[in-house]
Amino acid sequence: MTRYSAVASRLGTLIERGTLRAGDRLPSLRRTSRREGVSLTTSLQAYALLESRGYIEARPQSGFFVRPSAVRSVPEPLAAAPRRGSVRVGLAALAMRVLEGAQDPSLVPLGAACPSSGLLPARKLARFASLHVRRAPAEANSYAFPPGRLELRREIARRAVDWGGTLTPDAILVTCGATEALHLALRAVTNRGDLVAVESPAYFGTLMILETLGLRAVEILTDPRDGLRLDALKEALARHRIAAVVASPVCHNPLGTTMPEAARQVLVALLARHRVPLIEDDVYGDAHYDAERPVPAKRFDRDGGVLLCGSFSKVLAPGYRVGWLAAGRYHARVSQLQLASTLAQPTLPQLAVAAFLGSGGYDQFLKRMRGTYRDQVARARDAVARYFPEGTRVTSPSGGFVLWAQLPDGIDALDLAERALARGISVSPGPLFSASGGHRSCLRLNCGHPWTPRLDAAVRTLGSLARSPGGS
Amino acid sequence: MTRYSAVASRLGTLIERGTLRAGDRLPSLRRTSRREGVSLTTSLQAYALLESRGYIEARPQSGFFVRPSAVRSVPEPLAAAPRRGSVRVGLAALAMRVLEGAQDPSLVPLGAACPSSGLLPARKLARFASLHVRRAPAEANSYAFPPGRLELRREIARRAVDWGGTLTPDAILVTCGATEALHLALRAVTNRGDLVAVESPAYFGTLMILETLGLRAVEILTDPRDGLRLDALKEALARHRIAAVVASPVCHNPLGTTMPEAARQVLVALLARHRVPLIEDDVYGDAHYDAERPVPAKRFDRDGGVLLCGSFSKVLAPGYRVGWLAAGRYHARVSQLQLASTLAQPTLPQLAVAAFLGSGGYDQFLKRMRGTYRDQVARARDAVARYFPEGTRVTSPSGGFVLWAQLPDGIDALDLAERALARGISVSPGPLFSASGGHRSCLRLNCGHPWTPRLDAAVRTLGSLARSPGGS
């Protein structure tokens, strides 16, 4: 991170967390320079960045102020108590509609969590793919049996060192995105009919896997600020025979939350004590907004009970479908399951992504991308604050590119999403993220696209649809 | 097919089927020219081709003769009665070893059924991949959600017209090779504990799927010449509650057999009457040796009960992992299962294969490739005849690139494969193709590589290992 963006990031956090409120005057440039130990120019660049992201505004002769309609004017959602007991899941049709929405360019893409392809380094990836396939066409056309190409596994293991991970290439299985990783992980540690603890809300892909594998979900209360509630998890472990926990402690989807590091540590220790495997969905981890990469729970794993699922789909290469699974003590089992279910992953995408990672381009790119995502989320948040009905709450994500809005009670998100679709807007209704049809008044908004008047108008339309009676 | 290769093919069949026997003199060039209505040059080319494939030899001043040790001197294997009742399957470790053998260049590649990469149009595919990814990098980096890229599904549907198929692009799901197709098909039509009828011997990938899904196999007697025995299948349908049949009526692996067309028709009608779905593995169908493409059983499907699994892995692009599934009345179900298990297949391999197919290069290439495979199989067959112990039987494949050898009773193929591996030779032992550990005296030989002295020496070594007592 450059110096000025580090300064901007710290000030931005003060605004997001409510320390600086709408209308508050920011410290003078001189003061900030002194405090942060940077030049005046650097401070000015930091303020300009915050201004461009919609956090602050300059008033002539007066200095910089937090914008009136800025991010903190809408409170965060409250944790919504999920249904007690375990439930069967049934979401496929709803999910299919949202995913199809992402492929229809006539729709406003606030539904599926897809980054705008224009933001991704598609050209650079293409150069690596092209170079590889032309230089070694026969290699690209040879099977890469499990665990997958060593070049790629080496790069993944190398990157894990950054967060203190001790993954070896041998412990990593290359998968078809994080979806195959989650699927193999769940198949490895459960049997049909088993109970699996999931966050509430949870990524709908996970819920669909439970559905198709005949697993039952135990929903665990999850706080929009602090993530999975350990007290609720403990209660569930005492009450039920839980076969596995699926959780996303870092940059949760749809909440954008990161559990405090101490809580991540307790989570791993708790589950180890119960001998319950933790399937960790770390898909958005690289898209954090912090200065440092938040440490995946896998870092605290001592007995191989954490199955870490990663992917390059959310920040680099959705179309390449390169994910991975570090399955700890279940490594042999997941490899066997993959052999029988997909046999091998295509070689070329693995080689292209490995070359990109090896070139060092990824870290540079991530730095820029995190700022971009954060900016886009801030703008969407601002639009929600302006257009959504009084009483709306919205998350303050610590990473990723989705927002979770909780509309006033009585507003039915399923109905709202239907009406939005009729107006050419794709959104993800809250019940998609619940095993039991909960979160009925919530919406998830994809912020993977640069902010445009079209997006602004779409959020305004969503707001007025939410205000108008249903069934239009 | 060129005129001379058509002539060679007819004469080759006469030799394979035993009409012309070792030492028999072939008709003179003049006579053949007259009979076939071709020029003398064409006849000479045909004879030269047969000579290069090891079928015949020229004797100075005397003409052409069937080679003494040629193909027909070893009889075909007998159908081996499988275990009655249903069995649990347990093959993963054995399969992993065979597949790993294919990736170790120090081993002689007679194990896994992998074509030599040098035979495949890797360069041409690479050009298409490179072109596509450079021309439209953002497209290659966008999700291709189920059912997969339309360009590819159109080409697959178009090709089905050639065998009288009426597949529409909408009815096709792009998969990660035929393995994902078979896996999704089995998941769609069965539940854990169900009984599935399979051929004996059967492709070990299918058996591994049964194993990992907790399905039980009912093995059906399968004839090395005529394929799945319908009388045995009828008996199994009467005796058991069969949830599905998995079969490979065209170019079976490992037997190389194609069921007579009438039998394929009866098979479909029989299963439709019992309302039992047929999962058809057509992976080697394009590698047939006949003048016309043998018609998949799917052609006779009237109620959508046939789930056709295809792939480009065996004749074009192993490393691209492009397969497909036409699941008939189960299409919605398999799409849903794929969404939850792999979400989407990588875009670039789909686009590259579609471009290759669209260019018309595939048919030309297939024509050549079929001759190559046939030649390689003939040479391996010849080597088996020369080196394997008296009493060995070997298949006379109608397509594909594997041979199935049945050694004299008492020879343990598992032990033989172990000892071969110690000598640097990878082979697939018979029990890998049985759900119940049967076919103990059989070996499958991969003939996907051009014949070399190294391969010849390896078959000789296998022969002497088979003769020597085990446990060396």
Q: At CATH's second level, what is the architecture of the largest domain in chain A?
A: 3-Layer(aba) Sandwich
CATH topology of the largest domain in chain A: Aspartate Aminotransferase, domain 2
State the assembly state of the protein chains.
Answer: homodimer
First CA to last CA of chain A: what distance? 48 Å
Helix content of chain A: 40-55%
Main β-sheet description of chain A: 9 strands, mixed
Shape of chain A: globular
Query: How many DSSP H or I helices of chain A?
Result: 16
**Mean pLDDT score of chain A, rounded?**
91
Q: How many distinct folded domains of chain A?
A: 3
CATH homolog superfamily of the largest domain in chain A: Type I PLP-dependent aspartate aminotransferase-like (Major domain)
Radius of gyration of chain A: 22 Å
Computed structural class of chain A: alpha/beta
Unreliable spans of chain A are: none
Beta content of chain A comes to 15-25%
Strands of chain A, total number: 16
Protein chain pair with the most extensive contact, residues per chain:
A-B, 61 and 61 residues
CATH hierarchy class name of the largest domain in chain A? Alpha Beta
Fold and architecture overview:
2 copies of one chain form a homodimer. With 472 residues, chain A is of the alpha/beta class. Chain A folds into 3 domains: 70 residues, Orthogonal Bundle (Arc Repressor Mutant, subunit A), CATH 1.10.10.10; 119 residues, Aspartate Aminotransferase, domain 1 (Alpha-Beta Complex); 240 residues, Type I PLP-dependent aspartate aminotransferase-like (Major domain) (Aspartate Aminotransferase, domain 2, 3-Layer(aba) Sandwich). The first copy, chain A, is built from 16 helices and 16 strands. In chain A, the strands form 3 sheets. In chain A, strands 3, 5, 6, 7, 8, 9, 10, 11 and 12 form a 9-stranded mixed β-sheet that branches. In chain A, helix 5 crosses helix 13, helix 8 packs across helix 12 and helix 14 crosses helix 16. The mean pLDDT of chain A is 91. At the A-B interface, helix 4, helix 5, helix 6, helix 8 and helix 9 of A face helix 4, helix 5, helix 6, helix 8 and helix 9 of B.
